[in-house]
Write a structure and sequence with these properties.
The chain is an alpha/beta fold and 234 residues long. It has helices at 40-48, 70-75, 93-99, 104-108, 110-120, 122-126, 137-149, 167-182, 194-200, 218-223, 225-230; strands at 2-11, 14-24, 29-33, 55-60, 63-64, 78-81, 155-159, 186-191, 203-208, 211-217. It folds into 2 domains: 1-77 and 154-234, Rossmann fold; 84-153, no CATH class. The chain contains 11 helices and 10 strands.
Length: 234
């Protein structure tokens, strides 16, 4: 579904990604894990068209997308749920969700999409007329994911979905992501919560200093001694 080869991205003259290659297959959960500053968020921004690729390429469904504008990439079915949630706090929960369905094909399915989001996140139905800024951190993350789903993505990318959440909410959040995937949605996760993320994922990549250092099935990476020592403290 998604493939990148020899990807390079720079912040001015400073390399952020150097020769990154990876792939995501349909209906998979794939994780990009690593420490803060490794280049994980930069990778999602490059896929989304927010950051310019200086070398290499990205293909989605066989079509090259690294030269497209971000709105064209969204229209093709790639949606990013950003780090820090980035909801609209002075708008209601319902208004935030409706903004997710601005793509033409999503507008036509808005009512049905809203029903599905409410089934995944019943609390959002209860809070529909509440200002989004008054929600708890976990509820705001649910809203951000729900807004992404309203765009009817083929690939949903989530940037640090567990950031700032309590452990019990993190467990609930990953359980919901597993449910979303079981319904046929392809997920690409960027996370510092290495254990939870790799436990959930079919496959994963370890990003260190802007390069892929390890890759494999989630369970195999969890058993890797470097991962256990560097990221799990074992």
């Amino acid at each position: 579904m998604l493939e990148a080869a020899d990807l390079q991205v720079k912040y001015e003259d400073t390399p952020a990604l150097s020769g990154v290659s990876f792939q995501v297959r349909a209906k998979e959960i794939v994780s990009i894990v690593g420490s803060n500053g490794a280049g994980k968020s930069t990778l999602l921004k490059a896929i989304s068209g927010i950051m310019k690729v200086s070398a290499g390429w990205i293909r989605f469904g066989g079509e090259r997308i690294d030269r497209l504008a971000s709105e064209e990439i969204v229209a093709r079915g790639i949606v990013r749920v950003p780090e820090g949630r980035k909801i609209f706090p002075q708008m209601t929960v319902l208004e935030n969700l409706e903004l997710g369905s601005y793509v033409r094909r999503a507008k036509a399915e808005r009512k049905e999409s809203l029903k599905k989001v409410y089934e995944l996140f019943p609390i959002l139905r209860d809070r529909a007329e509440q200002m989004a800024g008054s929600l708890s951190g976990g509820e705001q993350q649910m809203l951000a994911i729900g807004r992404g789903l309203m765009s009817l993505p083929q690939l949903l990318m989530l940037d640090e979905p567990s950031l700032g959440l309590a452990p019990v909410i993190i467990e609930q959040m990953f359980s919901i992501l597993q449910e979303i995937n079981s319904q046929g949605m392809t997920l690409l996760l960027v996370e510092q919560n290495v254990f939870e993320c790799l436990s959930l994922s079919h496959r994963g990549y370890v990003l260190e200093d802007g390069r892929i250092s390890l890759q494999g099935e989630g369970k195999d990476l969890l058993a890797n001694q470097h991962i256990r020592a560097a990221y799990l403290g074992l």
